[in-house]
Fold:
Amino acid sequence: MTTEPLTAAVLGAGTMGHGIAQVLAQAGVDVRLRDVDAGRVDKGLGEVRKNLEGGVARGKLTAAQRDEALGRLRGETDLAAAVGAADIVIEAIPEDLELKKRVLAEASRVAERARVVATNTSSLPVTEIAQATDRPARVLGLHFFNPVHLQKLVEVVKAERTADDALALALELVGRIGKEAIVVRDAPGFASSRLGLVIGLEAMRMVEQGVASVGDVDRAMELGYRHPMGPLKTGDYVGLDVRLAIAEHLAHEVGDQFRPPLVLRRLVRAGKLGRKTGEGFYRWDEKGECLGPAF
Structure:
C-alpha cells in the first residue's frame, strides 16, 4: 500500500457524510466536507468534533490525534471549491436515484483531478448513476456502514464501466482508513443490503404476526447467531425510512421477499423512523441511547 498524499471531497454532511469525513481525516487524508448550506456543514463538523472528543475521553485517541484530524477537515458550501482539488469524491446524500445522478454529474464536471468518484448508496444502481456523469470509468460504489467510525466493512461496488485503476485506488483507500473491503458487482442490493434486509423484514413480520416480542426477536439473533445488534434495532439505527426505501426498490428489482411489512409502513407514516426521531421499534433518548422496546 502506498502512502501518497490524498485529498477527498465528501458531498453531504449528514450522518454518513460526516462519519466518512471523520475516518478519512483520521487516516491522514485532507477532506472537504460539503453540503448545500452552512448550517448543515457546521452541524456535520460539530458531530465530527464530538465523536473525536468522545474518543479522547475513552482513551481511544490522544488530544494531538484529535487536533490533527480536525486540522485536515474543512467545510464548504461551494461544490467547485470542495471537489476542485480532490483526488477522490464520495457522495453521501439521501437515497434518491435522480438526486444522486444530478449531484454526481455536476461534481464530475468540475472534479478534474478526481481519479475516483464514488456513491455511498446501499442499494441503488451504480452503473446508472455512473452513466449520468461525463467519465463513468471513474465511478464506483463505496458503501460505508453506520456508525462509520466503528463499522469495519466497506462494500466496494464495481459498475459496468469502472476502470481497474479506479477500483485499485478505492481498495487502497479502504485499507488506509483501517476498514476491510468486499468487492461486489452492481446487482440490486449488492451483498450486504440484500442479506441484511431480508433478515430485518422477516423479523418485522414475526413481530407483526405475534411470533415474539421486539426484544426477544433481536435477542434470538444476538445470542443465537452472535449478531452484535439485532435486526430490529439495526433498522432503528439505519433509519426505518431508509429501510422502507431500500425494501421497495428491491421488491421491484428482485422479488416479493422484499415486500415491506405493514408495521414498517405504519411506523414510517407516523414519523417513527428509529434512533434519529427518538422512536421506532425502540425508544431512544436525546443522546441516541436505547431506552428499550417501544411496543
Strands lie at 7-11, 30-34, 73-76, 88-91, 116-119, 139-143, 153-158, 180-185, 282-284, 290-293. Residues 192-286 form a domain with the N-(1-d-carboxylethyl)-l-norvaline Dehydrogenase; domain 2 fold (CATH 1.10.1040.10).
